[in-house]
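Input record (one chain):
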Amino acid sequence: MTSLRVEIDLGKIQANARCLVRGLGDRGISVTGVTKAFCGHPDVAGAMLDGGVVGLADARIKNVVRMRTAGINCPISMIRAPLLCEMEDAIQHCDASYNTELDTIRKLGAAARKLGTSHDVILVAEMGDMREGILPENLNECAARVIATPGVALKGIAANFACMGNAAPTGGDMAMLSRLADQVEGACGPFVELVSGGGSANLPWALGEGSTGRVNNLRLGEAILLGTDPVTGHPIAGLHTDAFALFAEVIETRDKPSSIPPAPIAPELGKLYLVPNDDYTARTILAVGQQDTDVSGLTFPSGMMFIGATSDHTVVDTANSTVTVGSEMEMGMNYSALMRAMSAPDVATTVHGKQKMNGSANDCETRPYLTLV
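The corresponding structure, as predicted from the sequence alone:
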């Protein structure tokens, strides 16, 4: 078994998806599973689907192709606008794409006509996240132009929250998104089928007591995969937070002083004598570094403390633990660390529970779920 690896528990991912699908389903909201954090790994995508998500979404066409090649036939959307060089691939492999630029949409339409098909477009409105998005006052005009573009069909509207701005949406934000859907229908005529309110940061609102309005879909990645709220980092009660773990080998462990006095630079100062230093601590080096993951997003075992990292080494204070060279250390990951590790070429993946995911069907029924703590 490769030492540097991510181990994945598919049963926990399936259980998380099922809990979220049930909780949001009671509120009239469907769930699209976002696959970009694990680079479209087909087994993980399959666990999301087994948990009841209505479709998948990714930001990179190569991940979508990976899933299609593995035989995943559910609806898949591109949640980043397709690049100009990806137009035909996007039409062939994706049922829909999230867009903001009319020129891109026209090229999608041309590619769809060339391939003898049609492509669904979801327009992204700018709701304060300040990443991609059409200003609300321009949304009706943009929708009208999409409707008039051959080869594409307007399927819905969407918004992003807590991607750039790290701020969760308010009830007022979501009410405005519902009003935008009504306005687009009033101005342009066709029914807005999909109103996708955002991602995991929307869960406190979506699972609250207020009206959900026209919002009928959320795109969830972090909540399903890690069981955490992306804004606060807090776990969501009832969801597994340990579906992914990073393992790295120990390549050195020894007691070292907290600091070593610098050598004198002037010859006249004579020989350098190291003064005994009682402030020694056990420092352990792991064979993992910045090239492999976001080390600032790792969680170390109890009693261990992160000291620092370089491109391929991570140093941990293990004074309160017994660690040996050649052993492995298991670490938790936040969303950033997970994304980096899953896309790093030197990090392997090991999947557990591919054939049968025992017990996950009852997880929602036996534990309180979907409460932020």
